[in-house]
Structures are given as C-alpha cells and as structure tokens.
Sequence to fold (358 residues):
Amino acid sequence: MSVESTAAARPATSLPSASLPATSLPSISREIRLASRPKGRPVPENFELAESPVPALEDGQILVRNLYISVDPYMRGRMNDVKSYSPPFQLGKALDGGAVGEVIASRSEAHKVGDAVVHQLGWREYAVVDSGSAAPARTDLAPAPAFLGALGMTGLTAYAGLLKVAEFKPGDAVFVSGAAGAVGSLVGQIAKAMGASRVIGSAGTPQKVARLLDLGFDAAFNYRDAPVLEQLKAAAGESGIDVYFDNVGGDHLEAALATLNVGGSVAMCGAISQYNATEPVPGPRNLMLAIGKQLTLRGFLVGGQRQHGPEFAERMAAWLADGTVRYDETVVDGLENAPQAFMDLLEGANTGKMLVRL
Fold:
C-alpha cells in the first residue's frame, strides 16, 4: 500500500499500454465476487477471486481494460441484502464500482481505441461497457485516477454537499469529520477556497492531523485523543461552527449539534462509524437542539447532484491547476488485494482516495 500526494493536476504521460489487435483481445477476465454477506466487519472469506469469459462486443459497446478501481465506503451497505438507494450486490456475482481504464476495442462511434474512460464496472480486469455509460477521462487535465477522486464523483460529492446541500456562505465556519478521507479532504479545501472563516477537521492519526494542517485546515484534531465534543469546542472557540459536513455520524454528529450556531446546517454524507453495526444504533442524544437552534440536517446522494457536474468540473480543474486544491491517493496494487483494501478503508487505513491499481 502506498500513499501518493498530488500537489496539482498534471497531464498523464501516457496510458500504460497500446491497444491490442483484435486477435489478442482477452477472452478471460479475473473479477472479485461477493462470496457471502458480511456480519459486522467484512472478512476475507466474504470475497472470492474468480474468472469469467469476456463477452463479445455488441453494437454500441466498448471493451475497457481497467487501470484503477475505486474503493468506497458506500459499498459496505450494498453487501447487505436489504432495500436501499442502490441494489444489493448479488452473491456469486462480481462487485461493481467506479473504474478508469483504456478502451481496447470499440463498436461505438463515441469512443475509439486508446481513449481513457470512466465507468461503473470496476472490480474486474476487463469490462464490456455500454458506450453511454462511459465518460471521457480528460488525461490532458489530470492523471487518469484523478477521475475517480478529485475530478470524479468524490469531488462532486464534496463540492455539491458543501455548496448546494449545506448552502455554505463565505465567512461560515466549517467542521468536517473524516477529514483526511477522499471526500473530507476536498471539502475542507473547497471551503477555504470559497472564503470560509475557519475550517476544522477530525481524523484518526497524528499523521492525518498533520496532513490536514498542511492542506490548509485552520485546526485539526485526532478524535482518539479525547472526546470529540471537547476537542471540537476547543478548536471552534466561542464563534462555534455554521456548517458540519458529516462523514462519520455517531459522536461526531452529536458534538456538531452541540457546537453549531443558530441557523446552522449539516450535510449528511456518510456515517462510517455505523456501517459495520450489527444492531440498531441510537441517534444523537441531543437531537432536540436542532429545534431551538433552527438547524437544517439534510442527507444527500451524489446521484442527485449531477446537475452541478459541469460547474464543479470547471471550478475543480482550475483549482487543481493552480494548486488551490491538492489530493492524496492510497494505492494498493493488484486486483487480488482489492478486498483487503476495502477492509482497510473501513478501518481508516487510507489517506485520501483509496484505489486499486491493476
């Protein structure tokens, strides 16, 4: 596992390999399947490395050699056989998720061989993708994996969650939990770029706290050192906070409710502290504060924010180019190591975006 920091967007030198002649196209692809449903924390036995045939292309389809796959916390919910906003993964079937790769065969006018594209059929080496489900990865703007992170759904989540869901305003004081993660680290930097009076982040190691300060956060604390409420109040001071971007839930949400100013808002993006829970988790004990403080707590999914994509892409490309926003990637090599990367993600082992390089 390696952590790679990117100071600003830089052009990719090239895709890893040239396109293959038709006679050399792969017939077999390795993939990661869900072998059993986790009970609590996922374990290696919940996953299976298997092979499957690569189907022949039909009109309007492309064959993509995946280069990087995205590892994301929301996947944990899809491993449960329950109704949710995304259908559950099926036992014995390949997992899916974000991926960026190279088109090695095409029966579509929209994508030619050699193009870099982003799509949702990750967790396998090769993917047959409907042309309309693949988007260009502008490697003239940034390296290909950035389109799974800062310039992809991760970045849009941070941008839309802060500016559209929480309705951030210049001068607001912002608290971000899970701030060293892929989304949280971008939220803090976007807030600073948009005129926040103060940005506070929480993380789980001294190294992550130091990284947040390096990225421009005004204050950061290790939530393992002392109660979150105690540390948040010390960091916020008498001014309190106006916006809370929630990636963690639990004691972080409770502390934020106690520290938010009247009229404050919460963008509820994730609750990673509860993803492996096997019993119902109680809500914040001080939720009643939301009434007197006239708070807005709003959950959101990035899929409902796609209308902001063009605005986000233009702004983020500029921020990356001039170094206003920087990002980290924790890169694990080898498809066979993707399950461990996912388990490590849920334990907070990543700094920035967790990726698997194939």
